[in-house]
Design a protein that fits this description.
By secondary structure, this protein is α+β, with helices and mostly antiparallel strands. The chain has three helices and three strands. It has a three-stranded mixed β-sheet with strand order 1-2-3, covered by helices on one side. The longest helix is centred in the middle third of the chain and has 10 residues. It is globular, with a radius of gyration of 13 Å. The N and C termini lie far apart (35 Å).
């Protein structure tokens, strides 16, 4: 499995950018909640993600939403989403676009 150079990588990222954190008006990819996207030769997608806090009100539903969005990408076979807490999310994980959007730059 590889995290780069797979033709489905950008379409999966684009799909994940349609999902927004309910408390911060930034998509989950630019928010830095997606830690890893691995896609194998059979187009199986494994995503490791976190939340801004273990007490996040959508902890029970957001991983399923991420899975559904990635699964809608044409060509993906099986999508697995794993919720991880290490490393803990911090504002340092925000993309530059997210920092600009939030007025942090």
């Amino acid at each position: 499995m590889t995290e780069t150079a797979h033709p489905l990588r950008e379409p999966v990222i684009d799909a994940l950018r349609e999902c927004f954190d309910p408390e911060i008006p930034v998509n989950i990819y630019d928010l830095g909640l997606i830690y890893e996207i691995l896609i194998d030769d059979d187009n199986k997608v494994d995503i490791k993600m976190t939340l801004t806090s273990p007490a996040c009100p959508v902890a029970g539903t957001l991983p399923g939403e991420v899975q559904a969005l990635a699964d809608k990408v044409e060509g993906t076979a099986d999508v697995n989403v794993e919720l991880v807490w290490d490393p803990p999310w911090t504002q340092a994980m925000l993309s530059e676009a997210a920092k600009l959007q939030l007025g942090l730059m």
